[in-house]
Design goal:
- This protein has two domains: 3-216, no CATH class; 220-282, Alpha-Beta Plaits.
- The protein is built from ten helices and twelve strands.
- The chain has helices at residues 3-8, 29-41, 56-63, 69-80, 103-113, 123-129, 140-145, 163-175, 202-210, 265-269, and strands at residues 50-51, 54-55, 98-100, 118-120, 136-138, 179-184, 190-196, 215-216, 220-224, 244-247, 252-255, 275-279.
- The strands form four sheets. The chain has a six-stranded mixed sheet with strand order 4-5-7-6-3-8.
- The radius of gyration is 19 Å and the shape is globular.
């Protein structure tokens, strides 16, 4: 399991620990709500903000440099991993990171753990692509701060979803090929689930294009059972991480476990149960690699 699971999990994954989900009565609720307001309120200026004396947008370019990239990525990671008691700065997204999760766990979180589920505009798409799509689910702290930032409220207004609506929403996002990610805001508290894609998701773009660990790989790896695969190719276009390609010679998908983020999109497209998700820690080559 990832390092956040070891520190903030309850004998398991950090995002399945009920203590990491706030209610209005929680001791840290007001502090987290104010953090989320600062984070979302400054998101459109994030790339122009200064972090360590350099513009974030310029620093991201340096993160991809073969010369000083490792040191720049280390600085970014230190900012991202700040916890609530370290007073993270929401203006530069300190203490705010995500992790890829499969559909089943997204449902578990929204139905069993989160106190409130509210539909929100994706601030990544809105601020950096000019696209208005309500593809995010915010929890209690987000629901409280969202009315102060009406640009992130969908056209239908503030909408709190019940269990059936949440399930339908997540399944719809999954069918559209959106990757589910769960987000801390700030660590260890969990603020939202986003359903997005690369390069629209800033977090995925930071990880895939610049090597910054804004989004961790999931706790799983996709594996193929060749005995069940019928060669339908429905999984062929589902992977956003370059981990899956369809072999015309073998007539089945091949998965590069080093690249797999464990999102489960390929699995969910398979009607023959030929693709399964297994614990990342069970595969020696991916153990501890998040």
């Amino acid at each position: 399991m990832c390092k956040f699971c070891l520190k903030h999990g309850a004998n398991g994954k950090w995002y399945l620990n009920a203590k990491n989900y706030l209610t209005k009565e929680s001791e840290d609720f007001e502090q987290v709500r104010d953090y989320m307001e600062g984070l979302w309120g400054n998101m459109e200026r994030l790339y122009m903000a200064k972090s360590g004396g350099a513009r974030v947008s310029k620093a991201l370019e340096l993160a991809a440099s073969p010369v000083i990239g490792a040191e720049v990525r280390k600085i970014f990671d230190e900012h991202i991993e700040k916890e609530l008691h370290q007073n993270p700065d929401p203006r530069v997204a300190e203490g705010h990171f995500g992790q890829v999760i499969p559909l089943e766990e997204a449902k578990m979180i929204t139905m069993d753990l989160a106190d409130v589920n509210i539909k929100a505009m994706c601030h990544c798409k809105y601020n950096h692509r000019g696209i208005k799509q309500a593809t995010c689910l915010g929890f209690t702290a987000v629901a409280e701060m969202l009315p102060k930032l009406p640009r992130y409220i969908p056209e239908k207004g503030v909408e709190i979803l019940d269990a059936d609506q949440v399930e339908s929403f997540l399944e719809n996002m999954n069918q559209k090929g959106m990757v589910h990610t769960v987000w801390a805001g700030p660590i260890p508290y969990i603020a939202s689930i986003c359903s997005c894609d690369h390069p629209n998701c800033i977090g995925l773009r930071m990880r895939l294009d610049f090597g910054v660990n804004a989004v961790l790989k999931g706790e799983y790896i996709a594996t193929v059972d060749p005995n069940n695969c019928m060669g339908c190719k429905k999984c062929a276009s589902r992977c956003q991480f370059g981990a899956l390609h369809f072999s015309s010679v073998l007539n089945r998908p091949m998965i590069d476990v080093k690249k797999c983020f464990g999102c489960g999109l390929c699995k969910d497209s398979c009607e023959d149960n030929a693709i399964k998700l297994v614990d990342r820690e069970l595969i020696p080559i991916t153990r501890g690699k998040y």
